[in-house]
Amino acid sequence: MVFDVARVRGLYTSLGDGWTYLNAHQIPQVPERVLSGVAAAFRTHAQMPFDDYLRSSHSSASQPNALAQLEAARQAVADLTASPAECVVLGPNRQYLTAVLAEKLSTFVRRKAGVVLSRSDAQWFTRPFTRLDATLRWAEPDLGTGLLPGWQFNELVDGSTRLVALNAAHPLLGTVAPVADIVETVRAKSRAWVIVDASTYAAYRPLDVEEWQADIVLLDLAELGGPQVSAMVFRDTSMFPRLSGAMPLELGVESLPNGLLGGVPNLIHHMSVLDEESGNIHASMAALADYQGTVTEHLIDSLKGLPAVHIIGVSGDAAGEYAAALDRVPRLSFAVRGVPAEMVHRRLMDNHLVTTVSPQDPLLSAMGATEAGGSITIGLGPFSTTYEVDQLTRVLASLA
């Protein structure tokens, strides 16, 4: 079955404005279904479900719509991750959830227990865990490809390790970490919990936390094209008593504008019908992954055909012969030899191609992006096509 990208593009009314959006890593386009869900929730969140109340004697029908929207949002995240709804903790963003989680881990990680973090991850993700009473160890990314090698966890993890945190996919390079292999290594050597930020990965691939066997999975639903809501998915509710204090199922949800939660079920429904013939969200996302794999391969091959373009983690001797074949989600960063990133970005914008100058990132800097005058980051969406890649290539060829 061929992935119907033309139908998918019709699900995003924002694509009709004449711009080509290649910045899903920065601000993903929001599908119309999510927008309508948020709007409806804002209108009705304070109302009572009158018809449901008349039809049912259950107490759940005797509460305002806002509470039902909260429950529906939690169930939607559970459907996305193939997890029980009672294991889903909601909050306003990943930064807040991570900070609260680190505080509650103080009784689980103590007395100089081992904590393993990755230097390729953003500081907002690693910094809260560095404040624990722990012995820190750092996993190092490969500076040729940007991949986080799994073999090093054999040396980093031992019986004293209580926490391992990593990103499932690098948000600017697209390299996918071998999460299942790392978790297996951790399980064999320690009783540590493994925390995985799956936001970038889940925007492009089917997500089953049972397959990874990770203990806690973080999700930023905005990165998937949804509202500004985030979630932590725990492996089991038996983990809650091991945290300091009770773990509420909502952390800071009261600070969210009323109605945002209404967009969460619509987002999951949107993801489940990206491929109309698949029938469920996991099959739909698998079909999307196959299609985007083809577009990403075309993107890499096209940029590699431009001698002045250096794809970070793919081009050059440091990356190696097989770098382009590594497992990647549809994101990458590149530099144009002799042309500052700001100038490249301006030329692309002049041709209605929306990309970004890569933000400050420790891994990109270590891989030479700063020395090259900066880099440009591209993030494809479910609606991206090979025609848009060809547009990008033609404009870059005029610079090279």
Task: Describe this entry's structure for a reader.
The chain has helices at residues 5-9, 32-44, 50-55, 65-81, 94-104, 123-130, 153-156, 179-189, 199-202, 209-212, 263-272, 281-304, 341-350, 362-366, 386-399, and strands at 20-21, 88-91, 113-118, 134-139, 161-167, 193-197, 216-220, 230-234, 309-311, 331-336, 353-354, 356-357, 376-379. α6 (123-130) links the parallel β3 (113-118) and β4 (134-139). By secondary structure, the protein is of the alpha/beta class. Strands 2-8-7-6-5-3-4 form a seven-stranded mixed beta sheet, sandwiched between helices. The model has no long low-confidence stretch (mean pLDDT 92).
Which strand order does the major sheet show?
2-8-7-6-5-3-4
Q: Give the N-to-C terminal Cα separation.
A: 38 Å
- Number of distinct helices: 15
- Low-pLDDT sequence parts: none
Compressed to H and E, one letter per element, the order equals HEHHHEHEHEHEHEHHEEHHEEHEEHEH
How big a fraction of the residues is strand? 5-15%
- Mean pLDDT, nearest integer? 92
Structural topology:
Layout: H1 5-9, E1 20-21, H2 32-44, H3 50-55, H4 65-81, E2 88-91, H5 94-104, E3 113-118, H6 123-130, E4 134-139, H7 153-156, E5 161-167, H8 179-189, E6 193-197, H9 199-202, H10 209-212, E7 216-220, E8 230-234, H11 263-272, H12 281-304, E9 309-311, E10 331-336, H13 341-350, E11 353-354, E12 356-357, H14 362-366, E13 376-379, H15 386-399
Parallel strand pairs: 1-11, 3-4, 3-5, 5-6, 6-7
Antiparallel strand pairs: 2-8, 7-8, 9-10, 10-13, 12-13
Helix pairs in contact: 2-11, 4-11, 5-6, 11-12, 12-15
